[in-house]
Fold:
Amino acid sequence: MSLRANIYLTIALALSLGFFLKADAAEPYIIDGGEIEKVERTRPFSEVKNAVAGFAGACAGVTIGIPCSIMKDMGKQTKRMRGQLQDDFSGDEKPDLFAKAASSSLALMYGVPSGIILGTIHGTKSGIESGFHKPFSRESFSLSLE
Structure:
């Protein structure tokens, strides 16, 4: 291709791109029953920007949210099981030292694996859902108080 053809092709591409951007900037209106109404529309560049931000927010939410959610769920599951085991070991009485020690050691054996499993599930779910709709928020990182 000659230099002159390249120049003409470059000018044609620049003009068509300028026309495309100008056409995208025009505000659409409709006439309905004699009244002029402005039509709300989304811009293609803002949709791409929102999709990229949502994807990045979901990735960050999963990366940071899973360990945070695992730690929260390990604590919740251990505390829940410790209370249940203390009631089982002590009967209806006030828990003594044996009931507290036995329930704490057994509760850790239950709380750690179940917290890892549930934390992974909850962290992934909140990281993807909240990370896409509300990127880089407390909910996407599983830091909200529940």
